[in-house]
Amino acid sequence: MSNLFDLLVAGLATGAIYALVAVGFTLLWQTSQTINFAQGEFVMLPAFLMLAAMHAGAPFWLAIILGILLSMILLGLGFKLLLVDPMMRHGVLPLAIATMALAIGIKEAVKQFFSAEASPFPSIVPTGDVSIFGHAVSLQSIGVLVVAILAVLGLTTLLNRTSLGHQMQAAAQNPTVARIIGVPVERMILLTFLINAFLVALASLLITPIYLAKFSSGEVLGQAAFIAAIVGGFNQVRGAIAGGLLIGVLDNLAAAYVSTQYRAAVPMIFLIAVILFRPQGLLGRAEERTV
């Protein structure tokens, strides 16, 4: 029973990170019809930017600030202006292919210019164990879960309870009408890309101390977050959050009770089942298509 409790807490912590990345997937799709297959590499890169800053002599806190700012410039502003905007005029599929190429490019660049070896990364949350209801639980898992939940609550508050959030939602739901009523649609779309860059940088800060800084780490994380976004409902932020938590718990339970070798297959099987029986996702809305 103790082992199951630990697995659930660790799974929720991992799932909270998946949720952050999945929310980014959802936001980009809602506002710009962008499916970013480089999202996993976007999570991997900020950790290496922070490590580079620390190797240059910056203290950890300054490296975090620099890493987040650089991520927002490169993975937010640069990604939109240099890749998404030029490719969008060619359609969704060419843009998706371009993000796949970007993922390969980022991975190879990190491998060549940073390191092909896994590197340790400092944790922003306490480590060790704490006793909860008689169970020894990792402080790191609790810290990761708390930080991720606070970030998600902050984002949902921004989207649902502020004028800026309402403008972002209007720009995502109907850009034409939003422009008519005075919403700066392009600015709102750019803000969404910047928010996604912040979310992936935060996810990088949370997950890298657990799994180390590796040039190949983005593949698994990106796949898990993409599955989470689809399972929860690709057109719903709350669906992405629920999907992330669910996939995180499933992943941990599969590793413990099925096999670490086949743990990746369990979320995939669950994804196929969801697509077959509820294509819009667990919390998604069915959308009619007109011809």
From TrEMBL:
CDD domains: TM_PBP1_LivH_like (cd06582). The chain crosses the membrane at residues 6-28, 60-79, 91-110, 130-159, 189-212, 224-250, 262-281. Its main location: membrane. InterPro entries: ABC_transp_permease (IPR001851), BCAA_transport_permease (IPR052157). GO terms for cellular component: plasma membrane. Keywords: Amino-acid transport, Cell membrane, Membrane, Transmembrane, Transmembrane helix, Transport. It comes from the Bacteria. GO terms for molecular function: transmembrane transporter activity. Signal peptide: none annotated. It is found in: Cell membrane. Pfam families: BPD_transp_2. This is ABC transporter permease. It comes from Bradyrhizobium nitroreducens.
